[in-house]
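Quick start: load a record and inspect it. Here is tRNA(Ile)-lysidine synthase:
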Amino acid sequence: MSYQPHPPFTLTTELEFNPIWLASLFTQANRVWVAYSGGVDSHVLLHALVSQITPEQRAKVAVIHVHHGLSPNADAWLDHCEQVCQALNVTFYAHKVDLKVQASVEDAARQARYQVFEDRLVADDVLLLAHHQGDQAETVMFRLARGTGTKGLAGMPAVRPLGDQGACLVRPLLSITKTQIEDYAQQYGLHWVEDESNQDERFSRNFLRQNVIPLMKTHFPNMEQSVSNMAQRVADDYEMLASLSAQHLSTVSNTHGGLDLNWLYQQPMPQRRFWLRQFVEQKGRSLTQAQCDSVLNMFAGVEDKQPEFVFADGRLMRHQNTLYVLPNELPVEYGALVIGQVKTRGFDQLQLIQGDGVELRARPLGAKLLMQNGQTRSLKKWLNDQQIPVWWREHLPYLFIQDELVAIANLWRHPDYGQLQFEWRPSKVLPFPNHH
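Running the structure step on this input writes:
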């Protein structure tokens, strides 16, 4: 995105925003969204924001509320949020989601919520979330309990990209305590909703919030601030490390974003894990240490094998001993093509081929290709000779005319169809080394 806001967001415990930051935000952002559940944290964030901006800036503010349907009070919460937004004269949007719970209700609700955000926001939109210092400490403790690496110890980032449309997520209250938020709400007489699920200790975060963290604070009163400060230091160090890693990885990666496995396996095992993890994270995905070990074992085998490692965020595949990160679900459209035949020699005029006998089909198993020298070659051998990546072989456009295979993308033509114009530009979603 062209605009990405940076701290400092707030300068005082009374939640007074840095006026320079606010002016920059509303000048450069396309729209400023506030994620609003109706709870005290998001209510205070919304109130503090609209209280410190001009009517012209307020016209840029939009509130987004996600209705999960998990509570019998969810409809009442939606109504409450809409009424608050009407009173504040800001635009209100509500989205109802149908949760598909496979493991954790918490995780499913969070994933659905963030999917709504990503779907709604467009380029240069900024989303404000009300996570505070206590939430940051809770997040770090939760990750520690489950096992985490350096990136996990960095907690929630104050600023990060949101989705792939050029939007941005901002957490301006990470330096603000829960007490400061509640004091603000009392001072301005705000009314908010209470989510009864926050008291359910079957949820791991609630157990931490209600039992572990209060106990630790009896011995370490400044624990939340200390953990939050540590997370920020780790985040700063990790950002620098990631930047340096990216520079080095660019020297051992090809122009299609593939990592040289010969180089990777020359590194000592700890560095091998590190570089693999950094390579995958650069593609917007992540691997656990156990997954890293599985990948390294899988791709250490014979080069002519075609192993595939599937994980939650994508797939890892090898081509010519180079590792590629691919999406889990292949795009519906694999590229763009134009089919025609030369109408006038010497000129770029095409007459588009039409008719019932013209078809694009899936890869024809067992097909034979007629070469220019009159010899035939099996499609499988031709694909191997052309070094076509295995993930593309099923998705190349195979053109048939009257049930005869006459072209494969712009890679092969039947000798009898020399005037055939078959222009194909593969989708950039999938890497295609060796294609020109």
